[in-house]
Amino acid sequence: MIQEYNNILVPVDGSYGAELAFQKSVAVAKRNDAHLHIVHVIDTRAFQEISSFDTSIVTDISDKAKSNLDKYTQEAKDAGVKNVDYSIEYGSPKTIIAKDLTKELNIDLIMIGATGLNAVERLLIGSVTEYVTRNATCDVLVVRTNLKNQLIDSKKIKNKNH
Questions:
Q1: Residue whose C-alpha is closest to residue 29's, from 93, 106, 111
Q2: What is the SS3 assignment for 44?
Q3: What order of strands is seen across the sheet that includes strand 7-11?
């Protein structure tokens, strides 16, 4: 029996790894005639440290995320994905991706980019990808290669993220 996925979640954050995960999620959603949900999670905990918190910062980030998500949605539709939508969420990316949205949207596959963090960074701040793979209640596919199944160059990831 071939596994078919009905509801696919792909988190995007502007990184090279997330871009590759998005590209592969489009192909999988199309093959499975699945619903594709694209999510960008704005980690509001990062703003708690700013003493003179300005709400325009969150507004600017939200506007940029919406613009990117509109482009991703159109790209998926142009590729033949019939059922695609997106959301912008606020809070902890780890729990929103692994638990909240999975349950809320009845997700059966999360496709997420491999982390660009080194061992020390993962130890100090943790990896969203690592957390999701250990705590999600559905299948998780960690994307490490491009559409030609070529391994991602970790230097390329770092350069795209900075």
A1: 111
A2: helix
A3: 83-90, 35-42, 7-11, 109-113, 139-143
Strands (E), the chain: 7-11, 35-42, 83-90, 109-113, 139-143
Residue 22 C-beta-side C-alpha neighbours within 13 Å:
26
CA 131 from centroid of its chain's CA atoms: 13
Helices (H) and strands (E) in the chain, counts: 7, 5
Separation of alpha carbons 162 and 159, rounded Å: 5
**Residue in the structure block whose two tokens are 């809320």:** 104
Alpha carbon 87 to its chain's center: 11
Task: Tell me the C-alpha to C-alpha distance, in Å, between residue 155 and each of 3, 95, 118, 120, 121.
Answer: 34, 28, 11, 16, 15
- Block mean pLDDT (10 aa), the chain, length 162: 85 89 96 96 74 71 94 98 96 94 97 70 66 94 81 53 40
